[in-house]
Design goal:
The chain is an alpha+beta fold and 226 residues long. 23% of the residues lie in helices and 25% in strands. The N terminus and C terminus are likely disordered. The structure holds nickel (II) ion (NI).
Amino acid sequence: MTEAIALPGEQDTLAIVQCGDPVLRRVADPVEPSTLQTPQLRHLIAQMRTTMELAPGVGLAAPQVGLSLQLAVLQDGPPQWAHLSDDERAVREREELPFTVLVNPTMQPIEDDDWISFYEGCLSVPCLTGVVARHRAVRVEALDQDGRPVDRVFSGWAARIVQHEVDHLRGRLYLDHVETRSLSTLDNYASRWAARPTRTAAGSLGFAVDQPTMRDPSSSISRRRS
Ligand code: NI
């Protein structure tokens, strides 16, 4: 396959695996770096990009398309945040994240105690959204789609996306970290909480913010309790 960039089309999309499928609970296999140059891997990455863009989503991990591989795609920008006001975007620290591929990533928080809570959702967990505390910034070491080393700090919303996608590669879902009392249908989220500070939802529903949940000690990134 050539480098030609295909415009998104339904024919290029992949089915997104839904929770309950064991592939989402498996630690994904590392990608053999030499395969990144093959037409098959390039085509897969293009298909994952199209699938993410049309879903729409800001990240997609290979296990979500049924492949147990340590490969994820990410992207954020005006099309993805069109539903947010400038203030809502600012408080979420959403900045443009050009299309990014992470292969075999490892991740460390920049500061162990710097947590920030927002509602997030997952294409593999339909109809629900919930509050998850994530590190505000993480350092990621990985390979890119060409097999070149990536060593990069992601912060704000991009750090949230990265943590969510790396979780997928470790067999974890946001449900493992969610404040369960925050869980909301998409309709209730839109009408009640989307435009309000997370703390308002926390006060009304009875959950904690800006600290990791008390019940996910298996999470390598949630190593400490505050
Ligand atoms: Ni997800």
